[in-house]
Design goal:
One of its GO terms (cellular component) is plasma membrane. One of its GO terms (molecular function) is ABC-type amino acid transporter activity. By secondary structure, this protein is of the alpha/beta class. The protein contains 9 helices and 11 strands. The strands form 3 sheets. A 6-stranded mixed β-sheet has the order 7-8-9-3-10-11, with helices on both faces. The two termini are 33 Å apart.
Length: 237
């Protein structure tokens, strides 16, 4: 894809071009305001692009804006804030989309929710409501909810930024496990430990542009340009 996006006179994305291979985990880093979250929102058709194209499995999904809800069945997204329905239990939050969007029976959807809660390591929380869960547990329910639609691509928009430090690891562990299993992912994060552990490639963005793309080994081995190195030094130290 190669896309432009502006809000009024503010150009947020400037000819951003990248490719993500099947089963690849791509980590996107950069300072605040660099366009990272907007990039994900454009991929998920939550924001229309001003110019350019986004191809997903050979289809130009920028031409499918009127069917965005169908595209999102194949692209899961996890946000900074968990966005769970407070009046529904963990299992019911996960069941909602398969039942409403896919017409799945509640019994089948409940079986899927049970399996996914086990996958994110909180099977005992099926009947708990969001306000009874820690932040890390809520985010793992949000991941399970996205997985319930069996997406072909997962997008994570700084999924640990709203968490207390002791809860971050449990969420990153689940994300790393999914990457190891071959889930294609684009992850916006400042968690360099996760990037080192799970990323196949890392992109550095600044002021709406992709400044550098490199393998994880190259990034952490110092084979990056001076601007990227300064950013990494700030994050790592």
């Amino acid at each position: 894809m190669a896309i432009d996006k502006s809000f009024g006179s503010n150009r947020i994305l400037k000819a951003c071009s990248l490719n993500v291979a099947a089963q690849e985990t791509l980590v996107v880093i950069g300072p605040s305001g660099s366009g990272k979250s907007t990039l994900l929102r454009c991929v998920n058709l939550l924001e229309p692009v001003d110019a350019g194209n986004i191809f997903f499995e050979g289809r130009d999904i920028t031409r499918e804006a009127d069917k965005a809800h169908l595209v999102r069945r194949e692209i899961g997204m996890v946000f900074q804030n968990f966005e769970l329905f407070p009046h529904l239990s963990a299992a019911e939050n996960i069941m909602l989309a398969p039942v409403r969007a896919l017409g799945m029976s509640r019994a089948d959807a409940h079986d899927i929710a049970t399996a996914l809660l086990a996958k994110v390591h909180i099977p005992e929380k099926a009947d708990a409501f969001p306000d009874e869960l820690s932040g890390g547990q809520q985010q793992r329910v949000a991941i399970a909810r996205a997985l319930a639609m069996k997406p072909k691509l997962m997008l994570y928009d700084e999924p640990t930024s709203a968490l207390d430090p002791e809860m971050i690891r449990e969420v990153l562990d689940v994300m790393a496990e999914l990457s190891a299993e071959g889930m294609t992912s684009i992850v916006v994060t400042h968690e360099m430990g996760f990037a080192r552990r799970a990323a196949d490639r890392i992109i550095f963005m600044e002021a709406g542009e992709i400044i550098e793309t490199a393998t994880s080994d190259a990034f952490f081995g110092g084979s990056v340009n001076e601007r990227t190195r300064r950013f990494l030094d700030q994050i790592l130290h």
